[in-house]
UniProtKB/TrEMBL annotation:
It is found in: Secreted, Cell wall. It holds the Pfam family LRR_1. InterPro entries: Leu-rich_rpt, LRR_dom_sf, LRR_extensin-like_regulator. Keywords: Cell wall, Glycoprotein, Hydroxylation, Repeat, Secreted, Signal. It comes from Musa acuminata subsp. malaccensis (Wild banana). Residues 385-502 are annotated as: Disordered. The lineage of its organism: Eukaryota, Viridiplantae, Streptophyta, Embryophyta, Tracheophyta. This is Cell wall hydroxyproline-rich glycoprotein. Residues 1-25 form the signal peptide. Residues 398-466, 492-502 have a biased composition (Pro residues).
Amino acid sequence: MEACGHSLLFLFLLLCFSSLSYVFSALSNVEAASIIHRQLLALSKKEDLSDDFEIDVNIANPRLHRAYIALRAWKKAMYSDPYNFTDNWIGPDVCSYHGVFCTTAPDDPSINVVAGVDLNSADIAGYLPAELGHLTDAALLHINSNRFCGIIPQNISHLKLLYEFDVSNNRFVGPFPDVVLRLPSLKYLDLRFNDFEGALPSALFDKELDAIFLNDNHFSSQMPYNFGNSKASVIVIANNKIRGCIPNSIGKMAATLNELVLMNNVLSGCLPPEIGLLRNATVVDLSWNSFAGVLSKSLEGLTKVEQLDVSHNMLTGVVPGTLCRMPNLVNFHFSYNFFKGEAEECVPMSTKSTAVVEDKSNCLADRPAQKSAKMCAPVVSRPVDCGRSKCGSSSPVKPVPKPSPEPSTPPRPPPSPPQPPPVRSPPPPSVHSPPPPVHSLPPPVYSPPSPSFNSPPRPIHSPPPPGHHHSLPPLPSHSEAVPPIGGLSYASPPPPFYPGYN
Ligand SMILES: *[C@@H]1O[C@H](CO)[C@@H](O)[C@H](O)[C@H]1NC(C)=O
Ligand SMILES: *[C@@H]1O[C@H](CO)[C@@H](O)[C@H](O)[C@H]1NC(C)=O
Ligand SMILES: *[C@@H]1O[C@H](CO)[C@@H](O)[C@H](O)[C@H]1NC(C)=O
């Protein structure tokens, strides 16, 4: 029993903290998750939290006392803290802890409470203990770019004020952490660059979130039919294995969606004409999927779009000139498809459009660097009927027939590291490896993120100003260290104050 425990512990430590985890590729993710789960249970039993000699130090303020219990348990769940970030996490004065921010309670101006914890970029290895459920006053929990592993504990469902949850660029595993759906105040959800897998719950898109970052995980379900119910302004699901079609419900996001990045999944079917209803979208990236059919003329409704990328799909037909003349278009990439024609405005360097257009590796007569006639013929001669395709009823969707055979679909970009020794610090390189053929250009250059997502970075490690117990501490930011995706670098929408606090 002991020996078993020890070898499990050994395995756990290996899985969590060493770059050797790829050695265990024979171990399925589910098995790994269950091992880690069991081990977490064992470890938390082993931790003796009863050495509570300071038990009544904070008793005058029971909320700080509970925070103390949470943070002490968390510190014990940290195995490595290479920058000594939590060195001063000693004793009951949690408001002096590095990365812990206190302010007056929204419901009781006479006491201080822990309003946020920011451990961004600390490179700490460890896990999240269930005791974090005691941080019931926290509005912000930012732990991006660390080496936390295991699962997100159910007990964080007690964080009723939690507004921003950023666990990006860690080593969390297991299914989508449904517990985040039970956080009533949550607006900003950032799970990117972890090892989550399995289905995206449809409830995610019914929850009132402002930003959803799921990119660079291993999610593999169909796109939930209620996708369009989301009111988020940014949805990034790039670099997963989401399949199926884009639900027609996407049109319901017309007033709210600013950025949609679905790049490098296994999506298929026709592009729903409702995409053209997204009049506020500035970034629409559907590249590196298996979309078929024609580009609907309705897409010209994307009047605010600056970055439009449909490259590396199976699209056919003619690229309409109205798309290339959209007023705010900066980059329009439709390379690596099977287009047989493009309007005059869509010819790269055309004087009729100011956008940078990319058209290579299609079936365009008179254009350089196109597919061979032999590759084009079978696809171009068999157009896909998009008129009848509907996507997104809750009943199973009849798949749109894919052009067949599939001649030389360009190789996909390497899925985000198949588990090579993870490079955590500095963050993983851009996920956008250049397309294979020779004359390839660098990845698309995206304009800076939209202003609401790009307020000036705040110093994340600066100590709160003197007297912070009476004024609001500086807001930690979680934008700096998150790896960019395809040149896009998203910061969270920094709320003007600790949400719920004022
Ligand atoms: C952290 O503390 C240890 C021991 O006090 C010290 O040896 C090490 O240099 C410190 N590391 C950093 C990055 O300050
Ligand atoms: C987790 O929450 C449950 C109640 O939902 C509670 O009984 C339990 O003590 C909590 N665990 C810890 C470690 O705080
Ligand atoms: C969407 O655009 C309209 C004008 O077209 C504007 O009034 C509205 O504020 C925008 N909404 C968002 C969320 O950007």
